[in-house]
Design goal:
The chain is an alpha/beta fold. The protein has 15 helices and 20 strands. Strands 1, 2, 3, 4, 5, 6, 17 and 18 form an 8-stranded mixed beta sheet that branches. It has a 5-stranded parallel beta sheet with strand order 7-16-8-9-12, with no helix packed on it. The chain has a 3-stranded antiparallel beta sheet with strand order 13-14-15, with no helix packed on it.
């Protein structure tokens, strides 16, 4: 049962005129940055959040069955452990509760500004600072940390006739908890990570469920189970036991990255998934519709104990014909079949490679980040961009993963930002941005490595690819390799901008 969560109450709603660091977004990345700033002795910052609570995707995604597909021990900050996880894979409400607890534990309330949407951010070259236009006024900052993530803006396909549908329409990230599904004729569009959780959660209560599947997914059993109270007590009393298990999980999951770099390994692993499907789905016709024709790992591998069983139930139909149009009370597919529905649920993901905020961030030459990227997001270390001084993109381009927790990547980036701030302090400088040649070399090496991975060679079309066909989402390696490359700030890879003469200390 979903528990009532105690909401975070910010201490102040007043927007400061200037801060050293402005953080946009109060999800894992933004809160992690805030915590590490405080731990490093920096308290001149603000966290701007357009919503009314912290949590990011874990605040927005309240659909039935929502949970993490990485073990709880890995899906938490190393510097803010939680010994009280209730399950091996945390439900969404528990992750949200954890983030709220982090706010209270590290006393972040004075730094939070809810309901503060950032409308634009422009680099003021003469003043060497960022000018942020927010829904509550103007703010300037020496450093801008964009912690908006890649999974913040829902993607809904353009289906002919959708605007005339008279029933209820919901995206997984915009769920209406007050809408009763009992007895409804529900159409679910998409078979990604959210749909694989929604379908088994709502199947027992709906009257009929039609799953409109464009591409089947490779599904592996998750093996979720409760964490016993004795084990929770052990984690509390012996922190080393919790740390040791976390390290074992980290190493084991990190080793899975080898398969993504060498597709032949995952082709062998497909046999496991096929055996799992054979045990669960007895109908040969349904099994054929659910069997992917691409190499495992090309699209996100899904983990679930109850998705495939749900698809075998009498009130569920899997439709593989493309959608031709949506009518007032039905969905029509290309074969002319009419599927009556009164509810449409989109599990169609997010605008992952087209960060909406990129259209509102302007760098040194006045161009927006989106204009510089021209449909293909690129960043040095997935974090900084030439021409955009003191801009740090947490969970930026090519920092996604297919095998383990993105928080491991995020923490390496947090340390890099702190290293940059220490460097600026030590030099008395105003800003840093990556050397263009260094950035280009990094991207070139990254693309070469990605070209050999299953994501590029697996024979599928996925959201990992941007508008130009480039893989702009994923990191082709281990989190250990990323941490080794990223967490240390190397000044030789950056251009250092001096302070304006008006800000330089006077000589004695």
């Amino acid at each position: 049962m979903r528990r009532r969560l105690q909401e975070v109450q910010p201490v102040s709603s007043r927007l400061p005129r200037h801060v050293r660091v402005a953080i946009v977004g109060a999800g894992f990345a933004g809160l992690g940055m805030a915590i590490r700033l405080k731990q490093d002795g920096i308290d001149d910052f603000v966290v701007l959040e357009r919503a009314d609570d912290v949590g990011g995707v874990w605040r927005d995604n309240v659909y039935p069955g929502c949970a993490c597909d990485v073990q709880s021990l890995l899906y938490s900050f190393s510097f803010a452990p939680n010994p009280g996880w209730s399950r091996a894979y945390s439900p969404a409400w528990e992750i949200q509760a954890y983030l709220r607890d982090c706010v209270r534990r590290f006393q972040l309330e004075p730094f939070l500004r809810f309901g503060h949407a950032v409308l634009s951010a422009t680099w003021d070259l003469p003043a060497r600072r960022w000018v942020l236009e927010t829904s509550h006024g103007i703010l300037t900052a020496d450093v801008l940390v964009a912690a908006v993530g890649a999974l913040s803006e829902p993607a809904i396909p353009h289906l002919p006739g959708l605007e005339r549908f008279r029933g209820k329409v919901m995206h997984s990230a915009r769920w209406d908890p007050g809408y009763a599904l009992a007895g409804r004729n529900v159409g679910v569009v998409g078979t990604g990570a959210s749909a694989v959780q929604i379908v088994p959660a709502i199947q027992p209560e709906v009257g009929r469920l039609v799953l409109f599947q464009r591409t089947p997914a490779w599904v592996l059993p998750r093996g979720d189970k409760p964490i016993s109270r004795p084990r929770q007590a052990l984690y509390r009393r012996v922190p080393g036991a919790r740390w040791l298990l976390r390290e074992v999980l980290r190493i084991l999951r990190d080793s899975l990255s080898v398969g993504f770099q060498h597709p032949w390994i995952l082709r062998l692993a497909q046999r496991w998934a096929l055996r799992h499907m054979l045990r669960v789905v007895k109908d040969p016709s349904l099994r054929a519709r659910l069997t992917p024709r691409y190499t495992m790992g090309c699209k996100r591998i899904l983990v679930s104990d109850d998705y495939l069983p749900a698809l075998t139930r009498p009130n569920v139909e899997v439709v593989t014909q493309p959608i031709r149009e949506v009518r007032e009370d039905a969905v029509v597919t290309d074969d002319g079949a009419v599927h009556p529905v009164d509810t449409l649920i989109f599990g169609t993901g997010f605008q992952a490679t087209d960060m909406p905020m990129a259209h509102h961030i302007r760098g040194r030459d006045g161009r927006t980040l989106a204009q510089v990227w021209a449909g293909s997001p690129r960043a040095f270390l997935g974090l900084t961009v030439s021409g955009f001084p003191n801009l740090f993109l947490l969970q930026g381009p090519n920092t996604g993963l297919g095998h383990t927790s993105v928080l491991l990547m995020m923490e390496a980036q947090l340390e890099h930002v702190l290293g940059a701030l220490r460097y600026l302090d030590a030099r008395g400088a105003a800003a840093v941005e990556p050397e263009k040649d260094v950035q280009d070399a990094f991207i070139q090496e990254l693309d070469a490595r990605l070209s050999r991975t299953v994501w590029n060679q697996g024979g599928c079309r996925s959201w990992y690819m941007d508008a130009t066909g480039r893989n702009a989402a994923l990191w082709p390696g281990t989190t250990s390799a990323f941490r080794h490359r990223v967490e240390h700030f190397e000044p030789s890879e950056y251009v250092t901008l001096p302070r304006p003469s008006s800000q330089r200390p006077a000589r004695s």
